[in-house]
Fold:
Amino acid sequence: MWANLQFCFRSICKIKSRKLRIFVFMANLLLKPTFGNAHGSHEAYDHKSSKLFIELGQRHLASFVVNSKTNQILAYEFFQLNDKLTPSLLNGYIIDKNFSLNAFEGVFFVHNQKEFALLPADFHKTHLDTTILETIHGDLILLQTQSDELPQWEIVNVFGIEKSIYASILAILPEAKHIHINSIYLKSAFKQLVNMHDQWIKVYFYPSFFNVVVMKDAQLQIMQSFYYETADDVIYFLINLTDQFLLDVTTLHMQVSGLIEEGFITFKELNKYFLNVSLELNPELHFVKGQEPHEPLHYFTPLFLSSQCV
Structure:
């Protein structure tokens, strides 16, 4: 009888193991990096002295590992998704990379989603977070609310994570910390206030949308995400912002980064309407020698701000 029980147990384990391998294999079929250098190299570094960052967007997924002491980027991948990010896709990726098995110094999920609200710190009430997000963004998607305190700006960034995504993260990486991309932008902007111009816009491009930060006289005017299909859409949104906040396009400085190229029609159109447009490079980017990216460095400016602001 004991022999039969052992046989059954081994059979069940084999079935579960085979299902897990199939699950991961299916995730791999769906996830093909747009660019990156990981390709299995995640086993080559000291996890205990490294931090893992995973950025989640509506149509993208990115991860990178940074050495905590040298701030060197050890591994990175960026995926442009054809469909909405799902818990199974995310879990499959985490399992495939063994991220849940390695003891990182810290694990951070960066949420690049539109469900957020910036509130004055003095008026922030935690019990109202869900109501505020549902009032602004609707209640069709069940959200787990989180908040980032930004004392430099005297505001709180309240944001929502889709509950199914949050539950899957909690199950596989329960110690992970969560932060919103706009909190990263604001922390980064605060560091640059001394060197800022009077009127200043940062535009961070991702697949099908861009995030924008507008500053005037060292004060935040707006931080928003805009979805676009054509270069005309981008120009329309940005021109509207300049009108709304009475910005002078002749003196306004615009820094652009993320997934955009100088040869793209979008970048060319920006230069037609705005006189001071430049590609923003992150001076704190440090890649491992011999693993420098083939992609333009401004691709990485918004992606790697997280490691400098947590």
